[in-house]
Amino acid sequence: MSEEKVTTDIITLTRHVLDEQRKHKEASGDLTLLLNTIQLGCKFVATNVRKARLLNLVGLAGGATNISGDEQKKLDVISNEIFVNALRSSGKVAVMVSEEDDEAIIVEDGLKGKYCVVFDPLDGSSNIDAGVNVGTIFGIYRVREDSTGTVEDVLRPGREMVIAGYCMYGSSANLVISLGNGVNGYTLDNSIGEFILTHPNIKIPPRGKIYSVNEGNASFWYPACTEYFNSLKFPPSGKNPYSARYIGSMVADVHRTLLYGGIFAYPADKKSKNGKLRLLYECFPMAFLVEQAGGQATTGTTRVLDIVPTQIHARAPIFLGSKDDVEDLKNVYAKHS
Ligand code: AHG
Ligand code: MN
Ligand code: MN
Ligand code: MN
């Protein structure tokens, strides 16, 4: 029987980030400490998600809803508290925006740092009771030069983020992150409590064979949207139709799109004029990651990362994925404009 080779030179997320920063001369202990705080939050949420059923953490949080109108699950609230407390106590954060808090949180002097973190503490929470993959999504801005840290520091285009990432909680915890120089994926080794580099330099295939959209909204779609998805389902003779995959957790749908290619969408339609996904802490981080992996992210007519948010819970339409698939989508929308 062949002996399992023991890896004695493990590349943890912390070590990898420090190596990357040394390469790009951005060594800043603050960023590394902030990322350690985010890793702590992800490990804590991963544990609670895994034990949710055992700890009776599934179900609604007493009927509360957030400002987006989502019914809050118990795990939405717990995950949010975990991240808010960890980020505040890190001393590296000036401003926080969470899906689960109506207003931006401005950290008190004494603990205020130089980064702004926008996050969706638990994405896909409608799936939690069924044990389907959920996740955390985050984006980080550096506070603007002359600012002490106000909500204006996060009402900026997503292209000004310095870090974007998500952690997907499934059979294992997978953290996917970009510091602006490519995308890397790490898997949590529960036995040592470290995220280990398992997916170095993720690149999205230039074209895929999968489309991912909630077809239950098809009766509300604008003509350009209908025309595009029909072109995938009823291709010219000789070409194979695309496969449909839709999990309903953005993190899981985007993770699959990043690794396999294809297109994920939450379009604007007659019912939801700006789509459903929130710009700051869902669309921006995922658009940042997909672009860093060689893909594209558009509203249909505008690059998502160029949008200037007007308020912290603004929504935006999004099509993201393989560069050629998204290019085809843009061409159909251009024809209808
Ligand atoms: P959240 O659970 O953070 O509120 O996000 C849910 C989002 C996103 O995860 C997913 O892509 C989308 O809702 C699914 O919406 P539909 O059920 O309308 O398709
Ligand atoms: Mn929600
Ligand atoms: Mn979400
Ligand atoms: Mn959420």
UniProtKB/TrEMBL annotation:
Keywords: Carbohydrate metabolism, Cytoplasm, Hydrolase, Magnesium, Metal-binding. GO terms for biological process: fructose 1,6-bisphosphate metabolic process; fructose 6-phosphate metabolic process; fructose metabolic process; gluconeogenesis; sucrose biosynthetic process. GO terms for molecular function: fructose 1,6-bisphosphate 1-phosphatase activity; metal ion binding. Pfam families: FBPase (PF00316), FBPase_C (PF18913). Its cofactor is Mg(2+). It is an enzyme of class 3 (hydrolase). Residues 204-333 form the Fructose-1-6-bisphosphatase class 1 C-terminal domain. Pathway: Carbohydrate biosynthesis. Its EC number is 3.1.3.11. One of its GO terms (cellular component) is cytosol. InterPro entries: FBPase_C_dom, FBPase_class-1, FBPase_N, FBPtase, Fructose_bisphosphatase_AS. It is found in: Cytoplasm. Residues 11-200 form the Fructose-1-6-bisphosphatase class I N-terminal domain. It catalyses: beta-D-fructose 1,6-bisphosphate + H2O = beta-D-fructose 6-phosphate + phosphate. PANTHER family: FRUCTOSE-1,6-BISPHOSPHATASE-RELATED, FRUCTOSE-BISPHOSPHATASE. Belongs to the FBPase class 1 family. HAMAP family: FBPase_class1. Homotetramer. This is Fructose-1,6-bisphosphatase. It comes from Paraglomus occultum.
